[in-house]
TrEMBL record, chain A:
InterPro entries: Alpha-ketoacid_DH_E1_comp, DH_E1, PdhA/BkdA, THDP-binding. Its cofactor is thiamine diphosphate. This is Pyruvate dehydrogenase E1 component subunit alpha. GO terms for molecular function: pyruvate dehydrogenase (acetyl-transferring) activity. Keywords: Oxidoreductase, Pyruvate, Thiamine pyrophosphate. It comes from Paenibacillus montanisoli. It catalyses: N(6)-[(R)-lipoyl]-L-lysyl-[protein] + pyruvate + H(+) = N(6)-[(R)-S(8)-acetyldihydrolipoyl]-L-lysyl-[protein] + CO2. Residues 45-331 form the Dehydrogenase E1 component domain. Pfam families: E1_dh.
TrEMBL record, chain B:
Keywords: Oxidoreductase, Thiamine pyrophosphate. Its cofactor is thiamine diphosphate. Residues 4-179 form the Transketolase-like pyrimidine-binding domain. This is Alpha-ketoacid dehydrogenase subunit beta. It comes from Paenibacillus montanisoli. The keyword Zinc-finger does not apply. InterPro entries: THDP-binding, Transketo_C/PFOR_II, Transketolase-like_Pyr-bd, Transketolase_C. GO terms for molecular function: oxidoreductase activity. Pfam families: Transket_pyr, Transketolase_C. The lineage of its organism: Bacteria, Bacillati, Bacillota, Bacilli, Bacillales. The keyword Oxidoreductase applies.
Length: 355, 325
């Protein structure tokens, strides 16, 4: 049955894809401009991040890290989207988005300190433009909207980018943020890493929308869907969105279809809600394997390179976890002094209980 | 000096700070062209332009959250939440995101934001327009809470709040917007955040109040005076930080006190004030400190407001109780 004239028309969307699962270029015209060195750097970061993730999971089990949300499987969407930004673009991450802010400049030991609840973790260096990961799902979407408002008012050619998941796209703040960005035409990129599950709740139970990307329509901003296991497609989509933002063309919602290979957190058990078949199917789309195949064909990467990067990553993680562990512990009086610029008298008096 | 009512004084505070500091931005629902539903920002868009003073879409969480994002980029947002009940929609952004920005970033970022909202009963407004929600805010670490009672204080406190590098919840009593005029300097000045004001001196009992209740307390003090009771009235002006020093000093003189609040009785500002009196001045007390407050019900908008709100008669009764203890 055809749609009525007064009915909103929408069509299904096909995700942007540049690399096939066996590493062949699907559409040469879509290839982002990247030098061989840049392609190798992207691979380096993805392999490094996966090794760091493996180590972090173990460190978590040993009690050497606090809350940690694993990232394996999502390297293309995380590393690619950050790589497409300028150094002075601003990142407002969700709780799983530690890789983006580390590759944007946050020292790794500070990421570990944040996980361990140490305030020094959040003391972002002056020239690094990020917030710490947000715990309240979706709250960061509004911060990115405000940062973009600031860029626009200052006339700076910078964009803000923020991340959430398929679950986060159901939050009120998600809609409010996109709606503000549409109304004010703000230079902001809303990334939804749709990994199929909000902890255990499957995407099918999350929304009746045709896709997450379609939610952009109601906000009057651009919506696109990307194969989130294809790092080149991710880079292409974020470059386009950033370009539009810098040119005053407004905000973009990018839905990245991806999968987390590991549990939601260290306290989660995927066997309760995912099938082995499904996991096996997604592992064939592994973003690192796919990109490695592409690079190998170009003669840019070998298994030895992967082995070398893994060793390097392990050594770096060890060095940084040691540095985190050796950082002087916080004190309650220091904590009290961190609440306001000038500690009020009643809080000054509260220090006496902790001396 | 000009004669201003409290609303005009509040508008003037924003005007002088918009002028003094290019990083000050005023926004919220309907604050632009018409100057807000209560006209507290009237004329500001005309004077400073749509860039500095602007309407937002209707979404309180986004208004507050955008302020947080602008705050970490060096701006000083003055965000209006149109009616007090609507802060429930913005609570995460106000009381979590803004309030813990300094903590989360170990001081790297802060939230120099003022969240202004009208509140307070007795004006026959709609449901959830007139509740007293300061108790929710004072239990939140990292945000200051200011409730002015007159035009002079309102301007000076709002200027101080805008200049403060931490978030401030600035509550404007609806019943005071047009209640009376006062001499208010036209230039910028500040009233120190965290300093109470003794508005009426007395030696027999201390009545501690804030917002509209300061005036109700003064009326009660005038009644008491007729019977020879000299009541001292303290206007707190700021609930967090609380000026316990001024309270203790007064109690050392009067040895008796009551606290008046418009909010529901249980666990509110008055309860906290009494706890601190207990900690700092128990040996100076000759009677328990009583509370005059609303009952623990939903605020009954429009219908029985006058019966529900603390009245001079209820304050007089409570004072007599502590005097005769």
């Amino acid at each position: 049955m055809s749609k009525l004239p007064y009915e909103v028309q929408t069509e299904p969307v096909t995700p942007l894809s540049i690399l096939s699962p066996d590493g062949e270029i699907v559409d040469e015209a879509l290839m982002p401009e990247l030098t061989d060195e840049q392609l190798k750097e992207i691979m380096y970061r993805m392999v490094f991040t996966r090794t760091w993730d493996e180590r972090a999971v173990n460190l978590g089990r040993q009690g050497r890290l606090g809350f940690y949300a694993p990232v394996s499987g999502q390297e293309a969407s995380m590393i690619g989207s950050e790589y497409a930004l300028n150094k002075d673009d601003f990142i407002c991450p969700g709780y799983r988005d530690m890789p983006q802010i580390v590759w944007h400049g946050l020292p790794l030991y500070q990421a570990f300190l944040y996980s361990r609840g140490h305030q020094h973790g959040g003391q972002i260096p002056e020239d690094v433009h990020v917030l710490m990961p947000q715990i309240i799902i979706g709250a960061q979407i509004l911060h990115a909207t405000g940062v973009a408002m600031a860029f626009k008012k200052k006339g700076e050619k910078r964009v803000a980018i923020t991340y959430t998941g398929d679950g986060g796209s159901s939050e009120g703040d998600f809609y409010e943020g996109m709606n503000f960005a549409g109304a004010f035409k703000l230079p902001v990129i809303y990334v939804v890493q749709n990994n199929g599950y909000a902890i255990t709740t499957p995407y099918a139970k999350q929304t009746g929308a045709l896709s997450v990307a379609h939610k952009a329509v109601a906000a009057g901003i651009r919506g696109v869907q990307v194969d989130g296991m294809d790092v080149l497609a991710v880079i292409k989509a974020v470059q386009e969105a950033a370009e539009r933002g810098r040119n005053g063309e407004g905000a973009t919602l990018i839905e990245m279809l991806t999968y987390r290979f590991r549990p939601h957190s260290m306290a989660d058990d995927t066997t309760k809600y995912r099938t082995k078949d499904e996991e096996a199917e997604w592992s064939l789309k592994d973003p690192i394997t796919r990109f490695a195949k592409f690079l190998e064909k170009k003669g840019l990467w070998t298994d030895e390179d992967t082995a070398r990067v893994k060793e390097e990553a392990k050594a770096t993680v060890n060095e940084h976890i040691k540095k985190a562990e050796q950082t002087e512990k916080m004190t309650v009086s220091g904590l009290i002094d961190s609440m306001f610029e000038h500690t009020p008298a009643h809080m000054e008096a509260q220090k006496a209980d902790f001396q | 000096m000009a004669q201003m009512n409290m609303k005009e004084a509040i508008r003037d505070a924003m005007r002088v700070e918009l002028k003094n500091d290019p990083n000050v931005y005023v926004f919220g629902e309907d604050v632009g062209k018409v100057g807000g539903v209560f006209r507290a920002t009237e004329g500001l868009q005309g004077e400073f332009g749509e860039d500095r003073v602007f309407d937002t879409p209707l979404a309180e969480s986004a208004i507050a959250g955008m302020a947080v994002g602008m705050g970490i980029q060096g701006f000083r947002p003055v965000a209006e939440i149109q009616f007090v009940g609507f802060i429930y929609e913005a609570m995460d952004q106000m009381f979590i995101q803004a309030a813990r920005m300094r903590y989360r970033s170990g001081g790297r970022y802060n939230s120099p934001i003022v969240f202004r909202t009208p509140f307070g009963g007795g004006v026959k407004a709609a449901e959830l327009h007139t509740d007293s929600l300061e108790g929710l805010a004072i239990q939140t670490p990292g945000i200051k809470v200011i409730v002015p009672s007159n035009p002079y204080d309102a301007k000076g406190l709002l200027v101080a709040a805008i200049r403060d590098n931490d978030p401030v919840f600035f509550m404007e009593h609806l019943n005071l917007y047009h209640a009376f005029r006062q001499e208010v300097p036209e230039e910028a000045y500040t009233v120190e955040i965290g300093k109470a004001n003794v508005v009426r001196e007395g030696s027999d009992v201390t009545i501690i109040a804030y917002g509209l209740m300061v005036h109700t307390a003064v009326k009660a003090a005038e009644e008491l005076e007729k019977n020879g009771v000299k009541a001292e009235v303290i206007d707190l002006r700021t609930l967090l930080p609380l000026d316990i020093e001024t309270i203790v000093k007064s109690i050392q003189k009067t040895n008796r006190a009551i606290v008046v609040q418009e909010a529901q009785k249980t666990s509110g500002a008055a309860a906290e004030i009494i706890a601190q009196i207990n900690e700092h001045a128990i040996l100076h007390l000759e009677a328990p400190v009583l509370r005059v407050a609303g009952p623990d019900t939903v605020y009954p908008f429009a219908q029985i407001e006058d019966a529900w709100l603390p009245s001079p008669a209820r304050i007089v009764k409570a004072v007599n109780q502590v005097l005769n203890f």
